[in-house]
């Protein structure tokens, strides 16, 4: 869990520093927070504003990849333009002479939602007490508020999952990682997210481990909608509703609904398998019938049979009486 930085007197000094460096050199005390396949997230201290920030930049091996540069810039600009309480503020976007493309965000204390679900799966009593079903439902509903806002502005997230929901130490819920977002009216030049027709990578089996087993999770497959699996470029906001339904199922049952032995089986489950509602999958968790109804409508195979707007889904989630 990331702690909140302490405000110190030197950070409020009224005198601006002389000869402020350009690019990432403006930030000192850089410390790695997280690393993905193409980018790294670091914390740093901004000597001008006197605050600790988060800086996302490409790794050395992807720094000169034009596709990765476009994807990072798209993520930065989409995030910057989605100004909502459940999105993270972007402070700066730049192209450093040494480290290449980067953007600077507010650094948020807390942890991602999946870490919370892992501890619940392991039976951690303190986490279960701190995050009962009602609290977890509100976390999902709050994250979906960011989706409702983005949908109203023509942006589909396409990667809604517990790892991308940040739960702050002071009640904040932030939806992160707009790197594969679809913006209406723009060519989709993001990296394809459907790998069903590709040769599975050697790490796919490792990525599709059980919820209680820990380890790295896949970036998208477990939460994809059937239309994403089919590679349909005509997706709309109902694909995010499907993913939100999967997250809601996992949050209630502490099990992913469509997990298969590998990615191809997972994709087949998403497209074709009828799964039991959360209360049947995890009868020991006393999941209310109303929650079953919301989940099963959200994860219908046909978009026309799901909730037709994110606001409708949020209202249904918040109406669940635990």
TrEMBL record:
Keywords, sorted A to Z: ATP-binding, Kinase, Nucleotide-binding, Transferase
EC id: 2.7.-.-
GO function terms (MF aspect): ATP binding; protein serine/threonine kinase activity
Claim: Manganese is one of the keywords in the record: no
Enzyme kind, highest EC tier: transferase
SUPFAM superfamilies per UniProt: Protein kinase-like (PK-like)
Superkingdom of the organism of origin: Bacteria
Key word Flavoprotein present: no
Domain Protein kinase: from-to ranges: 27-318
Region span, Disordered: 194-225
PANTHER family given in the database record: MITOGEN-ACTIVATED PROTEIN KINASE KINASE KINASE 20-RELATED, SERINE_THREONINE-PROTEIN KINASE NEKL-3
Full protein name: Serine/threonine-protein kinase
Organism: Rhodopirellula maiorica SM1
Top-level taxonomy: Bacteria, Pseudomonadati, Planctomycetota, Planctomycetia, Pirellulales
């Amino acid at each position: 869990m990331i702690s909140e930085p302490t405000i110190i007197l030197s950070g409020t000094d009224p005198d601006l520093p002389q000869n402020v460096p350009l690019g990432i050199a403006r930030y000192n005390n850089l410390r790695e927070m997280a690393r993905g396949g193409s980018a790294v997230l670091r914390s740093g201290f901004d000597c001008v504003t006197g605050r600790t920030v988060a800086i996302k930049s490409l790794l050395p091996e992807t720094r000169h990849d034009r596709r990765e540069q476009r994807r990072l810039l798209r993520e930065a600009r989409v995030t910057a333009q989605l100004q909502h309480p459940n999105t993270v503020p972007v402070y700066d976007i730049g192209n450093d002479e040494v480290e290449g493309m980067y953007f600077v965000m507010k650094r948020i204390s807390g942890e991602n939602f999946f870490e919370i679900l892992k501890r619940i799966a392991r039976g951690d009593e303190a986490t279960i007490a701190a995050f009962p079903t009602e609290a977890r439902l509100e976390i999902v509903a709050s994250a979906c508020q960011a989706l409702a806002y983005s949908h109203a502005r023509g942006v589909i997230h396409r990667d809604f999952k517990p790892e991308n929901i940040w739960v702050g130490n002071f009640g904040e819920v932030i939806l992160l990682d707009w790197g594969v977002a679809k913006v209406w009216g723009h060519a989709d030049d993001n990296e394809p997210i459907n790998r069903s027709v590709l040769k599975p990578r050697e790490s796919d089996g490792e990525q599709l481990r059980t919820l209680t087993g820990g380890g790295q999770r896949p970036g998208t497959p477990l939460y994809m909608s059937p239309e994403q699996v089919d590679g349909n470029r005509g997706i709309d906001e109902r694909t995010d509703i499907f993913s939100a339904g999967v997250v809601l199922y996992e949050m209630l049952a502490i099990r992913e609904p469509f997990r298969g032995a590998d990615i191809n089986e997972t994709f087949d489950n998403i497209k074709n398998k009828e799964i039991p509602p959360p209360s049947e999958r995890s009868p020991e968790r006393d999941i209310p019938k109303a929650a079953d109804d919301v989940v099963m409508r959200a994860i219908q195979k046909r978009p026309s049979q799901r909730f037709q707007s994110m606001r409708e889904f949020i209202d249904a989630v918040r109406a669940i009486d635990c």
